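Recall that a protein's primary structure is simply its ordered list of amino acids. Everything else, from secondary elements to tertiary packing, is in principle encoded there. The following example makes that idea concrete.
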Amino acid sequence: MGSKSKSKSKSKGSTKPGPQLSTKQKSSSSIWFYTLAILPLGLLLFASQLLKSALPAPPSDFGSGSMFDQIAPRYDFINRALALNLDMSWRQRLVEAVVGKEGEIFKQGGDDDIRILDLATGTADVAILLGQAASHYTSSTALSNYKPVIIGLDPSQNMISVGNDKIKRQNLSSIVRLGLGDSRKLDDVVDNYFHAATMSFGIRNVPEKEMALCEIHRVLKKSGSSLPPKLAIMEFSEPGPDSGVLGLVARFFIRHVVPSLGALLSGAPKEYMHLQKSIKDFPSPEKFVEIMEGLKCPVRSQENEELEINTFGAFRVTEVINLNFGSVQIYVATPILKKYVTE
């Protein structure tokens, strides 16, 4: 009995060590892990360089309506894939910058219905978010008489068609309306008409940026509202050298992942080469603020519609919101009038 219990307790107390990986095996596992992690990036880099060598660089004015007509059917899907599904949260920030955290733009009173212009509306993502905000904040009894209007303009008919389908599915057709339009030439819009304007990922596709900004300045209200009119522009830029490791990753993503993965998903390599090139060529955030604030837009008199001789228009940038490690900026500005200084 005693000897059995001894051997039993001995067997209970003894444990066999599990198999141990040798230093050589650990090193081999690490090599395979890093190889599998880096391989996709290497392939995307190779594909990006192959595209650049095989196709001529698109001209700066390539981002027209006809270009977007080609990619309209898969535009939303590719956007979500390339932005890792973050782009809608960026657009929500843009809308919040215009309407206010509590929908202040819709609560400012006065006899005017609130009118907001969304330029380069594309498939209407921002216009829909604006329409949802308008519906939400004007549903109370106190604001039920207001009829906010969101106008989305874009030079691509196919993008507008996709956007209109989305608007119908959201039951927003009474608030959001889309039409063909070029931000450089808003001939059908009267002066001082809109309370706010937005533009997301569109200004870099406009060669004559100053012309588009001056047209936006013209159609925005300059007075008559309790809140100052607002312009909010969201755009990509390449993160600068001081943006750290994550900025470096974002820069690699823009330069190599966007054109190669966009070409693969869309079957339109030239269009997504243009996307990467237009981001690379877009001014730095500091320079773009200088452009907005240094405008000299012609201003018409509200009395006789003649050009003012000693007055010009510009924007005052009140805030620049940095997103996605410095690769996305939202420029929030108000239109202002300045006098020419004469000696």
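Strands lie at 115-119, 149-154, 176-180, 196-200, 230-236, 297-300, 307-323, 328-339. Confidence is low (pLDDT under 50) at residues 1-13.
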